[in-house]
């Protein structure tokens, strides 16, 4: 009985998903028709045009190159932010000197608007790659650090005492005691971070360069090719979705590996 | 083995231990019996060398490695039974294989090596903690109300198992409890403590072999009354 209800619920949820999607495309195409008729066809391309552009992208070398460049920059920025964020968050939780030294800095970093970093980075960096990596890093690093730092505050003191009493080595404690307890915090930070990565990378590329997905978008803007802007947006959304699904998968696997209580 | 001489300890304004003196006899089970919140855990921490003392002396001849059983199992939830035991052991456990499987078998845990703590009952988890404590190389075993959180039946089973395991090792045990029955059945010596600031109210020795002890035997009943009286 229960199975039946959950199944039918899922089914109806699926139905509404498709209806919503269908309506969305319907309204979009009607709107674009009307705007084209009333004002100018350039303002809002129809979904078919956008899909068409996306399909032509697939056979273009420059498309794959751009995605490759953007992926590379996002990946480097993300990995740097995650690794350094874990390290700093860990030491902030472990040593009060480090904590007191870096806390004001972290709060400052977290409250600084990304546009300010963008403006500064445009002055500081000559290569668009460095600038993009920097922007990605600076957007994710404080978030990751604060997440791990919070995780350090949630460590179970009774397990810590047990490990100390049994004189378990620091190295073993790090991998068997700290890391599993910090993992949910690292994972949450990484998940939020990966979602921010593509937005940050594309924004920085749009302002700085001629290459990468953002660079291509800037070019499309200059050429007044709205359909291409839309197509690139779709590509970025797909990247974001794939990234999130990947994190979801990693999280599920790891949590299963570490047992149910996490 | 270890002797505490006139040990005092305060936390802020609160005096917890007041010139407390007692000996931990080697190869025996010393039960520390006292009302809840009388500073029993503090005593254990001092014996373990975790807490500095304000006054007095702790005398010990050699350096002593201690092992522990806590009120809760304190197992790592992301590790299996076997991995939890390995966690407190040196990197290479080759020479300990026999010891580990011996204790796992004694406590009825063989076959559960690859289970995670959440898959085990409360009593089984505490048995894993028991095995962990016994496998760990030690001369002194400190037990802090280890069966408090369990139901009576599980508690009795574990109590007997502890006792049987002790027969194998004959190591020194300090067993902290507020249950008179537990102290009477397990202890070679019983230390009755007062409320805070904690002093030794009474020191009793029981010479009946552990296996022959029954809680309703007349001699134990006498001691029971004595303890109750001083409680």
Provide a brief overview of the structure.
The complex is a heterodimer of chains A (262) and B (231). Chain A is mainly α and 262 residues long.
Structure characterization notes:
- The complex is a heterodimer of chains A (262) and B (231).
- By secondary structure, chain A is an all-alpha fold.
- Chain A has helices at 2-38, 47-58, 61-94, 96-111, 114-124, 128-153, 157-165, 170-208, 212-222, 226-257.
- Chain A folds into two domains: 1-44, no CATH class; 46-257, MetI-like fold, CATH 1.10.3720.
- The two termini of chain A are 31 Å apart.
- In chain A, 33% of the residues are buried.
- Chain B is built from seven helices and nine strands.
- In chain B, the strands form two sheets. Chain B has a six-stranded mixed β-sheet, sandwiched between helices. A three-stranded antiparallel β-sheet of chain B has the order 2-1-4, covered by helices on one side.
- In chain B, helix 2 (81-87) packs parallel to helix 4 (122-135), helix 3 (97-106) packs antiparallel against helix 4 (122-135) and helix 4 packs parallel to helix 5 (152-169).
- The longest helix of chain B has 18 residues, at 152-169.
- Chains A and B meet through helix 7 and helix 8 of A and strand 5 of B.
